[in-house]
Amino acid sequence: MDHAAEAQRTDLMTITRHVLNEQGRHPESRGDFTILLSHIVLGCKFVASAGEEQKKLDVLSNEVFVKALVSSGRTISSVLKLDSDTPFLSAQCVLVSEENEEAIFVDAPLRGKYCVCFDPLDGSSNIDCGVSIGTIFGIYMIKDKDNVTLDDVLQPGTDMLAAGYCMYGSSCTLVLSTGNGVNGFTLDPSLGEFILTHPNIKIPNRGKIYSVNEGNAKNWDAPTAKFVEKCKYPQDGSSPKSLRYIGSMVADVHRTLLYGGIFLYPADEKSPNGKLRVLYEVFPMSFLMEKAGGQAFTGKQRALELVPKKIHDRSPIFLGSYDDVEDIKALYASESTTA
Ligand code: FDP
Question: Structure pTM?
Answer without folding.
Answer: 0.89
